[in-house]
Amino acid sequence: MRFTTYADLFRNPAVRRILILGLIIRIPLWAGNIVLTLHVVQHLDRSYTQAGILEMVYSLALAISGPWRGRRLDRVGLRTSLIPSLVVMTACWLVAPWVGYWPLLILVGVVGLFMIPGFSIVRQVLIGAVPDEQRTAVLSVDSVVVEFSFMIGPILGVLAAVYLPTPVALLICQLACVVGGVVLWIANPSLGIDKADTDAAAGARVRDWLTPAVVAILLICATATVILTGEDLGIVAAMREMGHTSSIGWVLALWGGGSAVGGIVYGALHRHPPAGVLLALLAASTALVALSHGRPMFVLLLFISGVFCAPTITATIDDLSRAVPAGVRGEAMGWHGSALTLGGAIGAPVIGAAIDNNGWQGGFELAGAIGFASAVLGLIAATQRRRAGEADEELAPEGVERAFDPSV
């Protein structure tokens, strides 16, 4: 392992700055999400089902906006692409906390369509700020920062909703997201795309770079989110069934801690396992949690499963960034974000039904089974593509080089 790589990364001022900016953007985002749910069920006196519908609308809007917001990044740059987001988000969130449920539903959908592509921006800046050999390590560091922000944001959101009226708490959290976007606009970090890349992106179509390898990466990404959604719901159900409802918070935090440890170790490895292998390990370790008897064993197996969370997502980002031209990286990262969002949207009702019918163990078992089956199919397909590529190479006339195929 090469933990010294991390020291080299933190000596890079561009890396330090964008990681700090990433925290500024992400913490209020997670806080705002939890406050939005509490606002719907407490202030608006609506059901959790209606809160879920609002979250679904928001998620679908994010899934739609990811690719086109990323395409704007590729074609017009960071500052120009952020201006519509800053204007629309400010206007919507100044009004949204003070309206009823149905107007709020519409405003949240509009915000989702114009959401600042913060995750995509941070990762593009990091990729452009380091040499290729440090790319996996710097993306692993970012995955740890994401876990850290995820552990802090909801806590701050709940505190804000407890000590302030939820409309005020919602306004503060969401305008903090806008402030983060303004800071990002002022900093204007380099996305690592030169003019030639931008010109190439202007004429690029999705079908030009959406190879079978890219599709496979996006499917792995979506499946990983199905698993993580299953674990998230399963933790809540398990702790309630075991009579430890008050433990949900620290158990979730410990799960996130396992993910952070896995991200650090993964980034320091000399050789990195493929995303399909990591997905299989994540799925298998998730299914094993269903064998738990009692809280101590549950927490231990959950921590072990958490170790494979961040590496799996990091591997998909790393693989995707290498499988597409630099000029369309923003759009590709947008599709990656959409895959994450859709995986969660699909996974929540499916895993929820499994928990309702078979208890919390059913949620972990189904999530693990879906993930493992997908990983095996993906690895088989990758092997077949590799063999087909080798056969083509052998059949190619002497002196003719085989074109680069990122799926091989």
TrEMBL record:
What molecular functions are annotated in GO for this chain? transmembrane transporter activity
Q: Which Gene3D superfamilies match?
A: MFS general substrate transporter like domains (1.20.1250.20)
Task: Tell me the keywords, alphabetical order.
Answer: Membrane, Transmembrane, Transmembrane helix
Xref: SUPFAM superfamilies: MFS general substrate transporter (SSF103473)
Tell me where in this chain the Major facilitator superfamily (MFS) profile domain is found.
209-408
Q: Which InterPro entries match?
A: MFS, MFS_dom, MFS_trans_sf
Its localization reads:
Cell membrane
What's a Pfam family in this record? MFS_1
Q: Which PROSITE patterns match?
A: MFS
- State any GO CC term: plasma membrane
Protein topology in the membrane = Multi-pass membrane protein
Q: What is its main location?
A: membrane
Q: What is this protein called?
A: MFS transporter
